[in-house]
Amino acid sequence: xxxxxxxxxxxxxxxxxxxxxxxxxxxxxxxxxxxxxxPFILSGLRFFAAGILLIGYLLAKGEKANSLKNWWKNxxxxxxxxxxxxxxxxxxxxxxTASEAAITIATGPFWFIAIDKKIGAIIFQINLSLSDYY
Length: 134
Fold this sequence. Notes:
Layout: H1 11-33, H2 39-61, H3 68-92, H4 98-106, H5 108-131
């Protein structure tokens, strides 16, 4: 028996439409933003503004900040992901169009599957053969 509420079934296509529209506009916004800012500064300003909004929202709700250790771990992870992900996409959009960048990023999961099938099988086979000796 499904616990899914049939009254809210229309929210599924609305959620997917929001994902597609917001995600697609990201690449277009980056290409417009590159006319006035360098790529990594553009990405940094974008996520700094988002962080300020999120902190303001949490403070308005009455939430308190976590420990400094937790902030540090999240900051390191966030910097690596945002610099390596969005920052490099912004850098790449200096040389390609927004639609080419979006298509390239959208094919990422297919590349992971293809590489995993080919290389993952080899790595798994090597690990099995090495484990026989230890």
